[in-house]
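Margin note: ligand = FE2/S2 (inorganic) cluster.
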Amino acid sequence: MFINFWYAALRSDQLAGQPAGVRMLGQNFVLFRDSAGRARCLANVCVHRGGSLAGGKVKGDCVECPYHGWQFDGAGQCARIPSLGAGAKIPARARVDAYPVEERYGLVHVFLGDLPEAERPTIMDIPEYGQPGWHVQVDEYLDTVDYRRTVENGLDPAHNEFVHTTHGFSGKEGDSRVPDLQVEEHPWGCGFMTTYYSPPLHDAKMKAAAGRQGDAVVTAGTFHHGPTCMTTRINPGPGISIHQNAFKTPVDARTVKTFLVQTRTFLPGAEHDGRFSERNLFVRGQDQAVLTALEPFFTPETNRHELLMPSDRAVARYRERLLDWESRGWRLDEAALRQDDGRVARAIPSPARREQPRGWVLDPVPMVPAGRPTAARDASAG
Ligand code: FES
Ligand SMILES: [Fe+2]
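Resulting structure:
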């Protein structure tokens, strides 16, 4: 798992009233709205004696720890220690990490890392969001799977034919050749558009809206953004589009939360959301059945023990990007973290630690050192 990227913590409409506890990258966070309604995110561990801030209350601009009532503002600064009495001086170390927050696409995104603003990766863009002619709906999933496996699955055009009866023919049509992938590179990811030969749509309304009779050649493709996000763009019929913008947040190394922001140009009414949710759930179930049975459970650290094909080109590029981010020192040392489990509380370093590296009560999470990754990927696709 990687720090220094934006992660969707929850939906904007899920953050109101009491503080919300969210687990991301194997660490706990508290989110709340201050008196101006601005969303805030802090490391969840109270630096007094480890209270869970998410179990406390919002008091004005602060969140109050449920154990002894210390209050922390949106910048992570302790504003009140009741046991010291009114007006007492607050020690400088009485603060917790605070993370940049941005609300976009109906989601609360948190920047988990310490990079200064100018160097941060962007939040995955949805250019059509809010544009006339585009309808938006959001679905959520929680899956027991390595998030990298799910991104790789999105970047793999060959699985559609066999995993999705909705999209392919299970190999029955004979030639299932995947057209040569032209992988496009973007600043924070890569992807491709390609064509699929697909069977008729089952849902009568979707079929009518797509203006499609029988089998069809569908243009579609997937682009990843950072280690965890991806968008799949599908043109199911002439002049119509549906984009599956997936914001994936690793809860921990084995669990991923997905916020699927679907944008589409057809069947625009909210009354149609149910039929799309149903189809999304069905397709996701087909993917999960395959992904949860993969061995090894985690995306392998080297390509040597797999036999990649030209259709795996984007998968291979994604893995190279992960290595690049690892070489920058952005990868959590998960093996070292497991040793801490239940014994030591740590924090993902926030931007304030760059300015003031000293005086923090919690140590930062262990990171894989920057530099050349030890596990070089020595077999490429195609
Ligand atoms: S543990 Fe939070 S106030 Fe004591
Ligand atoms: Fe799939």
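Residues 46, 48-51, 65, 67-70 surround FE2/S2 (inorganic) cluster (ligand 1) (CB under 6 Å).
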